Amino acid sequence: MIQSKHGCPLKNSSDLYLRVLVADDHEVNRELLAEILEAEGYLVLRVADGMEAQEVLLNRGNRIDLALLDVMMPGRSGFEVCRAVKSNAETRLIPVVLVTGLTATKDRIQGIECGADDFLSKPVSQEELVARVRSLLRLKQFTDELENAETVLFSLALSIEAKDPYTEGHCMRLSQYAEALAVRLGLPESDRVALRRGGIVHDIGKVAVPDAILLKPGPLSPEERLVMQQHPVVGERVCAPLKSFGNVLPIIRHHHEKLDGSGYPDGLRGKAIPLTAQILQTVDIYDALTTVRPYRQPVASEEAFRIMHEEVRRGWWDGRLVEELQALLQGSAELAGRLP
Q1: How far from each other are the two terminal CA atoms of the chain, in whole angstroms?
Q2: Rg (CA), the chain
Q3: Does domain 164-338 have CATH number 1.10.3210.10?
Q4: Which of 45, 179, 225, 292 has the greatest number of C-beta atoms within 10 Å?
Q5: What is the DSSP letter of 165?
């Protein structure tokens, strides 16, 4: 966490020193900003042009916590560097402050469109610089903590999957194909993200299922089935503290429901089952049919869809989703090649 104002360098929640990149082609400006920030306890990296700034920021080994970019730099402008950073999934959460002498509204709008988190006008006020840097780093700390919590959940989910050699790669496949199906259906970005996350953590509740049940090669007894059917409820409870998982929780809880109400854990019917849960469920069924399981051999894709369409006629699944998944796989050699 952020610890002190002067003296020892400041640290984040992972006990790592806070590192600020200062990019300006004028040495006087560069050193002035660095001097102010170092006096506040930050570790400062200095670069003299936009190209070098971009290389430093996009290099995972450098771990930059915040970037101060002069707008007018040789090689690449601050606008261009900011756009590159914010377009990269691994660096887009780094706060970027554009330092500029430009005052026109169109220049500010351009900065916003590039993804800048804040602006500082030249000449830079020391008090304003310190306040804005401290505020943005505090927000980044909260974001880092959230990401760390998500990473723990993802690791837990994958460790559960790793217990069973028959389900290797299952979570990642569901994550990728559920999101691809959501894109095909034109669902909003929030649903796509939820399905990407849900594909990985949908079975995290199996952490509470004994291995004797989880890995049993034969049919489950009625008592064992009741234990297994509680894993969506447990999974929802495990992930509930993360506010960013609000759209993921219905996927976790309801991906084993059936349209006729014969599913679990709540026996929901028809449209009461969230669409995102049905999407994950559709991909889950296909993956289960086409991969080796301890109780049966996999079937070919055509046979898998024949079985799924038969279950649609029984009233279990949404026929449109099955048809869209089939069309998606037939139309995408890349996806079809990844699925068994």
Answers
A1: 46
A2: 25
A3: yes
A4: 179
A5: G
Q: What is the rounded distance in angstroms from the CA atom of residue 41 to the CA atom of residue 224?
A: 57
Contact in structure between 45 and 21 (CB atoms under 8 Å): yes
- Give 238-289 pLDDT, tens digit per residue: 888 887 788 999 999 999 999 999 999 999 999 999 999 999 999 999 998 9
* Residue 276 Cα distances to 65, 198, 285, 290, angstroms: 35, 9, 14, 22
How many residues are listed for the chain in this entry? 340
Each residue of 209-238: pLDDT tens digit?
888 888 887 788 999 999 999 999 999 998
294 upstream amide cis, omega within 30 of 0: no
Classify domain 19-144 at the CATH topology level.
Rossmann fold (3.40.50)
The domain ranges of the chain are: 19-144, 164-338
Alpha carbon distances (Å) from 320 to 77, 199, 312: 48, 20, 9
Question: What is the enclosing helix (H) or strand (E) of 137?
Answer: helix 126-162
Type and span of the H or E element at 179: helix 170-184
